[in-house]
């Protein structure tokens, strides 16, 4: 397949290398000229693409799958994207579980109340233009240099009882491939490791359990059951404690 990864950031560059290794033709785009040499090492073709500035999108002709991996919480791309006139057989949008409210409950894709407005607006924009789009809502991105122990290397977490909703990039890559090769359309999937230890558990912080009930939003959990059931997926890294 010819796959365009539109917006090759931290996940995108790893996805490009993974898909190219699987013998797909990978076209990567970036808004930053300095990133081109790095992307050329992992993709077959690299282009500058800025929805508000790029005039000719012919390099996206004959693309089988477009993966929209833009920073969708930023408004800068939206007006240009609205004018974007290219069709694709399949489209995938990378979104975020940050769309869900910070409340003490388990959230699934069926929860549609009080969603974060900017992320919701971005999802709606892409699905309006490309109704077939499958949306992948990622939890906190982990792997390589991204580790909770590094984040809290020089500070103590304010709420060690807070449950985690993370995903290792080594799970993201095969999940994207599964969704890409499936016939499913217009679906939303939470992509989050199925186990949710607390920050304290991961960092081995001793807590006596006191004040758990008073810690606001300690038990916010994002469920990935829909993904697991639809694809019979077994996570490579099910527990963030061992990322």
Structural overview:
The chain is built from eight helices and eleven strands. The strands form three sheets. Strands 3-2-1-4-5-7-10 form a seven-stranded parallel β-sheet, with helices on both faces. It has a two-stranded parallel sheet with strand order 6-11. It is α/β, with parallel strands linked by helices. Helix 1 (10-21) crosses helix 6 (169-181). The radius of gyration is 19 Å and the shape is globular. Mean pLDDT is 94; it is low at 210-214. It has helices at 10-21, 36-40, 78-83, 117-129, 148-151, 169-181, 199-203, 225-231, and strands at residues 2-6, 25-30, 45-48, 65-68, 90-96, 106-107, 134-138, 140-142, 166-168, 188-191, 221-222. Helices cover 27% and strands 19% of the residues. Strand 8 (140-142), helix 5 (148-151) and strand 9 (166-168) form a beta-alpha-beta unit.
Element order, helices and strands? EHEHEEHEEHEEHEHEHEH
Structural class comes to: alpha/beta
Q: Span between N and C termini? A: 31 Å
Q: Number of helical runs?
A: 8
Q: What general outline do the C-alpha atoms trace? A: globular
Low-confidence stretches: 210-214
**Strands ordered across the widest β-sheet:** 3-2-1-4-5-7-10
Largest sheet: 7 strands, parallel
Name the helicity range.
25-40%
Q: In percent, how much strand structure appears in the residues?
A: 15-25%
Overall mean pLDDT stands at: 94
What's the Cα radius of gyration? 19 Å
Could you give the count of β-strands? 11
